[in-house]
Design goal:
By secondary structure, this protein is mainly alpha-helical. It has eleven helices and no strands.
Length: 289
């Protein structure tokens, strides 16, 4: 059974795939259409209950919540993909330096990674925001750096393990350079571990963007964001509690979907699990052979 089929056969994998596809599709549709203009303010339509045409109701300024959620999905996808790219480049670079270079470089990289891992992602983002101000770029770089070192910490031992495999030694004996060995043998063999870490990193990016935007360190208030929407509406939770549910539910489902997808990817890509065949039980007939 292929990895994709095994992934789809898992309930967590199906849930994660469907949630990710739903968020990406919503973000793509919002580029060309939303029920209402997310930035349009209508004082006469303040605090409308869910009904047609405002299927999720309106907020304190009369903006359509469904349109704000659709537009906020764009911000979520941008941050998740951008942080994933930064984490991938940084993680692979640090893992390569920590596995393929001389001893003093490997040890220096290991110490650097251990130091950076001690700093939480949100703390890194707040430190960067204090210098350059809050923006999506700050969130992307902060989450990318924060999770990139986690990717390097997990990927580096795998690279070291594969580096001493027979096929890598054979390739080196046949004249393959370090770069050729890295691209042909090392990276493909650590790809499952890397992909799993990347999916978890994207979940962290979604949660960090929402949290930082809620605290005022992330997306500007003029840009649709689930965290900004949650921050705007939380002051009215005692009067209009349902309006806070929608952005909170969107954040929760997206993070849950990415986390479950990461768990399913780990199980589907694990060669020991893939090679394992379930025991076949023979029915008890009462006849002894």
């Amino acid at each position: 059974m292929s990895t994709v089929k095994r992934l789809w056969s898992l309930a967590t994998g199906r849930f994660g795939i469907l949630i990710v596809l739903l968020v990406v599709a919503t973000a793509a549709v919002s580029l060309v259409w939303t029920p209402f203009d997310p930035a349009a303010v209508d004082a006469r339509a303040r605090w409308l209950d869910p009904s047609w045409p405002h299927v999720l109701g309106t907020d304190n300024t009369g903006r359509d919540i469904a349109s704000l959620l659709m537009a906020g999905a764009r911000t979520t996808v941008i941050v998740a993909v951008g942080a994933g790219v930064v984490a991938s480049v940084l993680g692979i670079a640090l893992a390569g330096l920590g596995a393929l270079t001389t001893r003093w470089v490997r040890e220096s990289v290991a110490v650097l990674v251990d130091i950076l891992v001690a700093f939480p992602v949100l703390l890194i983002a707040m430190m960067i925001s204090a210098v350059w101000g809050g923006s999506l770029a700050v969130v992307i770089w902060a989450v990318g750096i924060g999770f990139g070192v986690n990717v390097a910490r997990v990927t580096r031992p795998e690279l070291r393990r594969v580096l001493h495999s027979d096929f890598v030694l054979a390739g080196r004996a046949n004249g393959l350079s370090t770069w050729q060995n890295l691209t042909r043998h090392l990276l493909p063999n650590v790809a499952p571990v890397f992909i799993v870490q990347l999916s978890w990193g994207m979940a962290v990016a979604v949660l960090a963007e929402a949290g930082l935007s809620y605290l005022g360190f992330g997306a500007p208030v003029t840009q649709p964001s689930w965290g900004v929407l949650l921050s705007d509406l939380q002051a009215y939770i005692a009067v209009h509690p349902l309006t806070v549910v929608w952005p909170g539910l969107a954040i929760t489902l997206t993070v849950l979907g990415l986390n479950l997808l990461g768990d399913a990817l780990r199980e589907a890509a694990d060669p020991t699990l893939s090679a394992r065949t379930p025991a076949v039980r023979t029915p008890v007939t009462g006849v002894v052979a």
